[in-house]
Design a protein that fits this description.
Layout lengths: L2 H13 L13 E7 L4 E9 L5 E8 L2 H14 L4 H6 L2 H8 L1 H4 L3 H30 L2
Antiparallel strand pairs: 1-2, 2-3
Helix pairs in contact: 1-2, 2-6, 4-6
């Protein structure tokens, strides 16, 4: 993508966010992340469906880059396995968003990924705790 296409991509995700809604119900975990430096806040909701595929939504407010990143990541992550999501790294996300545009704002660009990782860890802890409780009943 050239710089103009990257800009349009980010603005589209910011102005028309995908999967921007809270999620509730059994098996849903939520993690909240923030960037105090510029006031970005992102909540990532994660659920793994019966076919072991992730469903990801978000809520948030903040700069264009942080919110566009959360929109892109929720769209990208939905339908992936947790194993696939844990392999996603900062460079993958930054490249998808447009490295040239987000290099000076990497904390904003990667907030959604950090928060998704926190949600995955939270889900793993809750799943392990439930399994332990089931064994001890």
């Amino acid at each position: 993508m050239d710089r103009q296409e990257q800009t349009e991509f980010l603005l589209d995700h910011y102005e028309n966010p995908r999967h921007k809604e809270p999620m509730s119900g059994d098996g849903v975990v939520m993690a909240k992340g923030g960037n105090p430096g510029c006031g970005d806040v992102v909540k990532i909701y994660l659920k793994v469906n019966g076919s072991r595929r992730a469903v990801v939504t978000f809520e948030g407010e903040g700069c264009t880059i942080s919110q566009a990143s959360a929109s892109y990541l929720s769209e990208f992550a939905s339908g992936k396995t947790l194993d696939e999501l844990t392999k996603l790294d900062y460079d993958d996300l930054i490249d998808a968003l447009g490295r040239e545009l987000v290099t000076q704002r990497t904390r904003c660009a990667t907030l959604s990924l950090d928060t998704l990782r926190a949600a995955i860890r939270k889900r793993e802890r809750e799943t392990e705790a439930a399994a332990r409780d089931a064994r001890h009943q």
